[in-house]
Amino acid sequence: MQSILFQDMGRVAYDAAWEYQESLLQANLELKARWYNVPGALPENNGTLNHLLFCEHPSVYTIGKSGHMENLLVNDARLKELNVSFFKTNRGGDITYHGPGQVVGYPILDLEHFVTDLGKYMRNLEEAIIRTLSHYGIDGGRLPGATGVWLDAETKGRARKICAMGVRCSRWVTMHGFALNVNTDLRYFDYIVPCGITDKSVTSIQKELGYIVDEQEVKNILKYEFGSVFNAEIINEPVSVTAA
Question: Which residue of 16, 78, 161, 241 is surrounded by the most CB atoms within 10 Å?
Answer without folding.
Answer: 161
